[in-house]
Write a structure and sequence with these properties.
Elements (H helix, E strand, L loop, with lengths): L3 E12 L6 E12 L3 E5 L6 H8 L7 E6 L2 E2 L5 H11 E4 L11 H5 L1 H6 L3 H15 L14 H14 L4 E5 L7 H18 L2 E5 L3 H6 L2 E6 L2 E7 L11
Parallel strand pairs: 3-8, 3-9, 6-7, 7-8
Antiparallel strand pairs: 1-2, 1-4, 4-5, 9-10
Length: 239
C-alpha cells in the first residue's frame, strides 16, 4: 500500500469571521497517496490557490489539521514550519519567482544552499537536473535572458533540487505557449512516473487536466467532485 503524503481533515479558511464570513476553503477533506498526479480545477475564486497555500504551509487554516508525511503542519511553530517546507515540499509558481540577479544554476541550487548542502553535491545535483530539463547550456544565464518556458523549467529544477516527495504547482502552464507547456508537462509526468514524485496542480488549463490521473473540482471553497481518470489517449506528440 502506498504512503499517504497529504492528509487534510476538515480544513477551512475564513475571511471576515466577525462580520460577513467568507469561506475561501470550507471543511475540506483531502487525501493524496504517494505518486498521484492530481489536478485541482474550478472557477476563479473557488479556493484552488488558497487550498494549495494551506497544504504547502504558506498559510494556516482557521479550522482543521493538515498532515504532510505524517507531520501535522498546523501545529508547527513558524520556524519549524519554514524548516519543514525546506526539506519536504517543492513549489512551482505561475510567475516563476526566480531571483533576477542570480543565474539559472544559482536559482536552482538556492534551496540546497539554505539546506547547507556542500558545493560538490550541489553541483552534481543541479547538473543532473539541468540535463533532465534540457538547459545545461543555459546554467550561467540570468532569468531575463530566458524564455518563459525556460524560466518555468528552471523553477521546476529548483522545486526538485531538494528531492521533495511532493510538489505543489499553482497554474504552472498559465504563462507558457503550447510547445513550452507540453514539454513542461512531459517533464513533470516523467518525474512522477519514474521517481514517484507526487504532484498537486491548481489549473484552468485543459492540457494539464488531460494529463491528470485524478481531478478534484472545487466550487465555493468545497469539493464538488473527486474522480480518478482513466487515460485512453495515444502517446503525446508535439508540434
Amino acid at each position: 500500500m502506498k504512503n499517504i503524503v497529504i492528509d487534510a481533515h476538515n480544513i477551512s479558511k475564513v475571511y471576515n469571521p466577525e462580520t460577513i464570513p467568507v469561506y475561501a476553503v470550507n471543511n475540506i477533506h483531502l487525501h493524496l497517496q504517494e505518486g498521484e498526479f492530481t489536478a485541482l480545477v474550478g472557477p476563479s475564486g473557488s479556493g484552488k490557490t488558497t487550498l494549495l497555500n494551506l497544504i504547502g504551509g504558506l498559510d494556516k487554516p482557521d479550522h482543521g489539521n493538515i498532515y504532510i508525511n505524517g507531520t501535522d503542519i498546523t501545529k508547527l511553530s513558524a520556524r519549524k514550519l519554514i524548516e519543514f517546507r525546506l526539506h519536504n515540499i517543492g513549489f512551482v509558481f505561475q510567475s516563476f519567482n526566480l531571483i533576477p540577479v542570480l543565474t539559472a544554476k544559482e536559482n536552482a541550487e538556492f534551496i540546497l544552499l539554505l539546506q547547507g548542502v556542500k558545493r560538490a553535491e550541489r553541483d552534481k545535483r543541479v547538473l543532473q537536473l539541468f540535463t533532465e530539463i534540457g538547459l545545461v547550456e543555459k546554467m550561467k544565464v540570468r532569468p531575463a535572458q530566458l524564455s518563459g518556458g525556460q524560466q518555468q523549467r528552471v523553477a521546476v529544477a529548483r522545486a526538485l533540487a531538494s528531492k521533495p516527495r511532493f510538489i505543489l504547482a499553482d497554474e504552472p502552464t498559465a504563462n507558457l505557449d503550447s510547445v513550452a507547456a507540453l514539454h513542461l508537462l512531459d517533464l513533470m509526468e516523467a518525474l512522477n512516473q519514474e521517481e514517484q514524485v507526487t504532484f498537486l496542480f491548481s489549473t484552468h488549463d485543459p492540457r494539464v487536466i488531460n494529463r491528470a490521473r485524478r481531478v478534484i473540482t472545487l466550487v465555493d471553497g468545497s469539493i464538488a467532485s473527486d474522480s480518478a481518470v482513466v487515460s485512453t489517449s495515444a502517446p503525446h506528440e508535439h508540434p
